[in-house]
Amino acid sequence: MSKQLKNIISITPAIFSSFFLFFITKYQSRLVFFILVPLWIFLIVFFEWRIRKINKKKQTLLPIILITIFSFLSLVSIVEWPFLKPFFTFLIGFVVLLLFQALFSEDSFLQIEQKPYRRIMVVIWSFDAFAIISTIFALSLFFPDIPFWLLAIFGGVVFSAISIMIWKMYFQLVRKQWLIWAFLIGFLMIELIWVMHFLPFGYLVSGFFLTWLWYILQLLTRFHFSPNGVIWKKQIWFLGINTIMFIILILFFVRWV
Question: Which UniProt keywords apply (predicted)?
Fold first, then answer.
């Protein structure tokens, strides 16, 4: 298949993804939502299945594509600034384009040639984590009758599941290797979600800082899975800089509400 044809095939779901999100945010109608979202998902599933069948590709990217769509839908529903919605409309098209381009890559992300695609996937998964956890905090604010411990557990499961997805892109791990670490990250994130719930931050700020902390945790765990393990001499500067930036942002830039 020629590169030009691959680009055309990848651009098609990207374009209709932007159009669907545009119409959903523009009309904000339940009827529009319940008509367009199933159609959107159907087309995405069809294109993804068709491309994999043509390329005889076993590895599916459907989970990250569908979760990313859900993340964008949830994020545009809680963002209060109107000027960001056109940006998200463009961004989802760009993200879907990258994901469908990845379908034309080699079958395994474990190969060294797939390093750029792995990094793209990590960024997208991190964005999904931010969108979902921000939505959880927004739900706790808009619907206070929902028990927050349920939302916290759901958030911990999300962080844990996304961590597993990222680790599997880098290593061939059996369940017993990642299970305990996924549980620990999920448990820690539940605790952090619970603590952050009591701090005077907005839901987007809370989601941002929690995603930041989670990213560092899953990154260090990923290094642990590598043959050399975590080389703390190299990571001390990374952790120190992140700690300083974290404190500065909280004290001097974040609006306390």
Answer: Membrane, Transmembrane, Transmembrane helix
| Measured distance CA(246)–CA(11) in Å, rounded | 38
Q: Are 132 and 74 spatial neighbours (Cβ–Cβ below 8 Å)?
A: yes
Tell which residue, 66, 242, 95, 97, has the closest CA to residue 165. 66
Q: Is 128 helix (H, G, I), strand (E, B) or coil?
A: helix
Q: List C-alpha distances in Å: 209 to 7, 14, 257.
A: 36, 29, 15
Q: Which amino acid is at 120?
A: I
Report the SS3 class of residue 28: coil
Q: Is 201 left (phi over 0), alpha (psi -120 to 50) or beta?
A: beta
Q: How far is CA 220 from CA 3, 129, 151, 231, 235, in A?
A: 37, 17, 26, 10, 9
Which pLDDT tens digit goes with each residue over 106-163?
555 545 456 778 888 999 999 999 999 999 999 999 998 999 999 999 999 999 999 9
Q: Per residue in 23-56, pLDDT tens?
A: 999 888 889 999 999 999 999 999 888 888 877 7
Q: What is the value of pTM for the model shown?
A: 0.89
